[in-house]
Each structure stands twice: as structure tokens, then as C-alpha cells.
Amino acid sequence: MNSIITAIVLAIIGQPAPVFVAKDVKGAEVSLADQKGKVVVLEWVNFGCPFVKKHYSGGNLPKLQETYTGKDVVWISICSNKKDNPRYLDDAGLAERAEKEGWKGTHLINDANGKLGRMYGAKVTPQLFIIDEKGVLVYDGAIDSKATTKVADIATADPLFKNALDAVLAGEEVTGAKNKPYGCGVKY
Amino acid sequence: MFLISWLGIQLAAGSDVRSGRAVAGWLSAASGYVAGGVVKTAVVIEADKGWHTYWSNPGESGIPTEMTFDLPDGWKVVETGAPPPMRFEASGLASFGYAGRTYFPVTLQAPQGAAGKVVLKASLTWLACDDGGCVPGDAELSLELADGAAEATEHRAEIERALERLPVADHGFGLEVVDRGSTLEIRLEWVGGGGPVVDPVDCEVFPVSAERIRSAEVPRFRKVADGWVAEVAKSDYLSGAVPDLRLLLVDRKRGKSVSVGWRADRAE
User: Fold this and answer.
1) Residue B99 Cα, gap to closest chain A Cα (Å)
2) Tens of pLDDT along A150-170?
3) Which residues of chain A are at the B interface, by a Cβ-Cβ cutoff of 8 Å?
């Protein structure tokens, strides 16, 4: 099954990020191509996953979202839970859950058919991608270095994603642009 | 709960703990200890039906089961072990771990001069997943042992079986790895005396080292004139040349498994 996922992945570090057009949970159209000139973050999310819960209940992801959207970063969170997964939520349910979790991104997309997830080769939640102002994929990996579900570990982890995003915003090259993300498998 | 019946009423047993879609307990092969002697025990985790826990290298998702010990002064953990894992897909990702009841043998040593009843403690964390989701689990376990009364418990046989199933390290095999860019050529040679306890051709091969070979790869050795050879794709997360590699060869037919390792800085 995994070979099927990897066979159609179009997202490669250093290459133009695959573009997509999708509706967010509020019905607004999101076009990646229209974001050129801005740094874009794609965050794969499943609010039922304990690794995602760690970073929302600990306030890490909402804080990152608030901080970087404040720096004109476009933050797109994508949930690829398929419809027959017990954690599936419809658009309204997903929007409501995101609000409860303190989500502060720009757009939230319900990718129940897994199209965007497979396009980017998203394997786990949380998994983060960064696309630079030129539309090039410059980061694909973990939020941080500690593969645990404990909130207390956030403070002592190496913030891999944050470091990468800071580098992109500073016009610097990202070190460790592809690393293994930890989390729950995306529920395709 | 089923663990209550395993743990029985003997001193050499703690309470079972239910958490994270599994039940955990700590069993001892002996009801007591002798000062300076060893005690064979096993931490046991039984995942609910349809759920699995993870090996030290969990594969593409999940996290390993971890345990730490809090022992009285002078007591030591001599050895811990994990049985050979199984390969499964979790949400389409290649993963390594366990289903059902899993024994993790723990051999302890009492200090010289130890006396009286002792209470040993262990903390355990794990992640259990099925195709629908994942749940973390944790347990604080304890084991009480009497002084001097080292009689076998009803768990002795199952703990001995679990010990026999543990992988042995570098059992006469030499491993060589040739980095071919996107793939690795892995060569095994028999350099021990007697004969190998596993036949690499029959073995399921697991990467002990994470992010060396693609977890989705299922390496298979084939026989060649001077040993065995397998070709595998390198992990997408490995940049540059492979620095080291450790594999677990699991021969289910013979009930044996062997861990073999290689390091680039020690290669000839």
C-alpha cells in the first residue's frame, strides 16, 4: 500500500511544490499557485491523534500559527482522514474541533479523499511542509525532534520545523530539509 | 482481567495495569531471591485484539515501547530483551511491532548482602494503534520478592520460553555493506564455527537501525558462493553514505533470530 502512496508523490525537496486548488472548511477557495510571493506552510493534522493533541494541548502549534501568520506566512492545515475513519469529521465538525483546539492557521482543508495527502506524500500527523516565496518545496518533516506524546517534551525538543521556517524567512538555506516526521499514520 | 490469573497470588507478582488499549504486568520466574543471585522476570504487554504496539525501530509511524526501572539500593538490571517483531501495515505505513501478548524478559541481580522482602518498580510507556487511530499507554508496575524463598512460580516456563526466543547478537555472521547510492548491497558471510542457527534465505529481515533502509522494503537474502546477499533501497531520510547498519534476521521456521551489525568506520 505504501508503494502506491510513494509512487504518486509529486512533492520533492528543491522542486516546485505541486499546486492544488481546494475549498477550505468555510467554503473559501484555496489556490496554492495564488500564494506565490508568500511563504506557505502545509500542516497535516488529525485532532484525534495523540501526537497532534500534544502540540495543540501544549499550545505549541497554535502559537506557531499565530506567530508566523503574523509574519505574512500562509498556514494551511489539511486533514486527510477518510470518511469511514472513526476520527472523520465533516467540514463543520472539523471547523468546530479546530476552534476548540485553538487552531490559528489561515485555511483548514478537509481532504477526505486523500488527494492532497497523497500528492505531498504525507505519512503521519503532524507532518509539516514549507514552500518558499518562489513556490519551491524547502522542508518536509517533523515538527520537532522528540517522538513522544508528552507535552513536557516540547520545551526540550529541537524545534526542527520552526528552525526551518525561520531560515526560509531569513532567506537562508534550510538544513535537514527532509527528515522523518513522527506521529500517527495519515488515515487514508 | 486476564492478567490477574497470570499474576496469581504469589509474592512474585504485581498488579496488572490497563491503559492505552493494552494491559501490562510484571511476572517473575521465582517467588523470591538469593543475595547475589539473579532473578528472571518478564514485563508483559497484551494489546487488545486488532491493536498493536511497537518495536525499538517502529518503522514509518508509531513510537517504541520504553521501560525504566526503580530498584532498591544495589539491585541491578542485568539484561532486558525484546522478542522478534512482526511486520504490519498501519494506515498504509510499514511498521514493526507486536500484536497480542508480548514478553519482554528482564533479568535482575540482587546485591550481596540483600535481605528481607523487596519491592521492585518499573515504569512503562507504549503506543497502541489500529487502523482507526493511536492511543498512548503507560503503567507503573511493581514486583515483590521474598528473601531466600527462590521457588519457581507458575510463570517460570513462559519466561524461559521468552528468553529462548530472544535474538542473539552476531552469532558467527559477518556483515558487509556496499553503498551504491540509492541502494545498499548487503553481504552476509558465515565466519563462526559449526553452523549458523538461522538460514538467512528463510529469514524475515528487520532494520534495527532506524533510517538506514526503507521500512517498506522487505529485504530477502539469496545464497551466493561465499555467503548470502540482499539489495535494499536506502531510507529517504538518510542523507549521504550509510554510516552503520544493524539487522535482525528472524528465522520463524527454526524459532531463532540473530542480530548482525556493520560500521563504515570499521570496514576494511
Assistant:
1) 17
2) 999 999 999 999 999 999 999
3) 1-6, 48-51, 85-87, 123-124, 147-149, 178-180, 182-188
What's the pLDDT score for residue B216? 87
User: Would the CB atoms of B127 and A149 count as touching at under 8 Å?
Assistant: yes
Range of A70's domain?
Answer: 2-185
**Same domain for B52 and B135:** yes
Residues of A within 8 A of B90 (CB-CB) are 185
Smallest Cβ distance to A185: which of B61, B63, B239? B61
pLDDT confidence tier of residue B265, bands split at 50, 70 and 90: confident
Among candidates B52, B255, B67, which has minimal Cα distance to B161?
B255
Give residue B15's pLDDT. Answer: 78
The ipTM value here is: 0.84
Whether B24 and B140 map to the same domain: the answer is yes
Question: Grid coordinates standing for A106?
Answer: 489561515
CA distance B130 to chain A (A): 10
Mean of the pLDDT values across residues A6-12? 69
Q: Using only the alpha carbons of chain A, give its radius of gyration.
A: 15
Q: Are residues B148 and B182 in the same domain?
A: no
Q: What is the CATH number of the domain that holds B127?
A: 2.60.40.1250
Confidence of residue A9 (pLDDT cuts 50, 70, 90): low
Quick one: B172 and B161 in the same domain?
no
Residue-wise pLDDT tens digits, B68-78: 999 999 999 99
- Mean pLDDT (whole number) for B86-92: 86
- Tell whether B152 and B180 lie within a shared domain: no
Question: What is the count of structural domains for chain A?
Answer: 1
- CATH number of the domain encompassing residue A87: 3.40.30.10
Mean pLDDT of A117-140: 97
Q: What pLDDT band is residue B180 in, cutting at 50, 70 and 90?
A: very high
Q: Side chain identity at B268, as an amino acid letter?
A: E
Q: CA of A127: which chain B residue's CA is closest?
A: B61
Final residue belonging to a domain, choices B165, B183, B203:
B165
Could you list the residue range(s) of the whole structural domain that residue B217 is in?
A: 168-266
- The residue type of B30 is A
Helices (H), A23-124: 50-57, 60-69, 91-101, 115-120
DSSP B144-193: EEEES---B-TTHHHHHHHHHHS-EES-SEEEEEEE-SSEEEEEEEE-SS
Mean pLDDT to the nearest integer, A102-129: 97
Claim to verify: residue B218 and residue B130 sit in the same structural domain = no
Number of domains in chain B: 2
Do B183 and B160 belong to one domain? no
Q: How far is B124 from chain A (nearest CA, A)?
A: 13
For residue B143, give the nearest of B264, B44, B52, B252 by alpha carbon: B44
